[in-house]
Design a protein that fits this description.
Layout: H1 3-19, H2 23-38, H3 41-45, H4 58-71, H5 76-79, H6 98-107, H7 109-116, H8 128-138, E1 146-151, E2 165-168, E3 171-173, E4 181-182, E5 186-187, H9 192-200, E6 206-213, H10 222-230, H11 237-250, E7 256-259, H12 262-267, E8 275-282, H13 290-306, E9 311-323, E10 326-335, E11 341-346, E12 353-354
Parallel strand pairs: 1-6, 1-8, 2-4, 5-12, 6-7, 8-9
Antiparallel strand pairs: 2-3, 9-10, 10-11, 11-12
Helix pairs in contact: 1-2, 4-7, 4-10, 8-9
Amino acid sequence: MAREQVAQVFSRQAEACAHLGSPLYAALLRRVAQDIREGGPCADAVTGREDGPEDDALPLRLMAGAHALALTGRAPALAEHYPSAGGVLDPEAPDAGWPALRDAVAEHPRWIADWLSRPPQTNEVGRANLLLAGLLYTVPAAQRPVRLFELGSSAGLNLRAEQFRYVSGDFAWGPVDSAVRLTDAWDGEVPDWLRAGAERHQALRIVERRGCDPSPIDPLSADGSLALRAYLWPDQAERVRRLEGALRIAAKVPATVEGAGAAEFLSSVDLEPGTLTVVWHSVMRQYVPADEWAGVTDELARLAAAATDEAGFAYLSFEPREVAGRAGFWLAARSGAGPERLLASARPHGLPARWPGPGE
């Protein structure tokens, strides 16, 4: 991959950040792309990657490493421009922190190199908005014990999704005193199927919470919580607040995330009488090699075929797909061996969701 190709990867990420509401990263990533073209410190940081395959996650890794420098006090000049680190963003000049970012990358090459070698680990709490909606739709009866299994869990924050508060207009569900509030959860009317699910379940009884990830993060450790904070975009205050709340909930509600691939993890899961076993995942499929995903598909088929009224099974996913010729991120649900239903779409970070789904 030539230097110009690397720069284009950063430029594309800049446009994505602009579209997803981060003027800070949109402006800074454009400057990083230009610095790579000109052979500056950012070019030095990515040296050696020009000969490898195109890596769309490279910008997120570099920016996370720099964000971590700001959050830990190692780059105080950069922190002055990052709201997440106590700084102030100038809306008229969102790239005002570029000299400080450039200096941070130049002054901490080993730190940046370490972050560039890590897999992206954005445990996006907003995606629980879709996953929980799917769960309320899928669980057939009030107080049916649920065993929850997540693929690509990262730190497992969304394994505690029923502990969050969901609010949209006159609709609300979840603990009123929750540390995580997902407000304006739906764009327009909340669908009838969700209202019915919320009425059916005043609460959900989660009796098992397990996930897997090739590189799991311990959200209760200093290094783990730093990584989760660093992968957020510093000018998106709501995402930062949601993460902080989810970390507080994680300290109170145990969940287990195993260091394993998705197919290997699912091979150890069996259905249990008297419970509903739910497997879910969100925006992780693109990181799984094709042969690994084939194994996941086989394991999901095994569980679906084994499902009975007494030992239930449901599968939920929030992933990018093309529907009716239009690309988007969709919540899909399937109970047992029944047909898949597309329930809603949303932006990649999960808020707000939109209904109706296709064909409704």
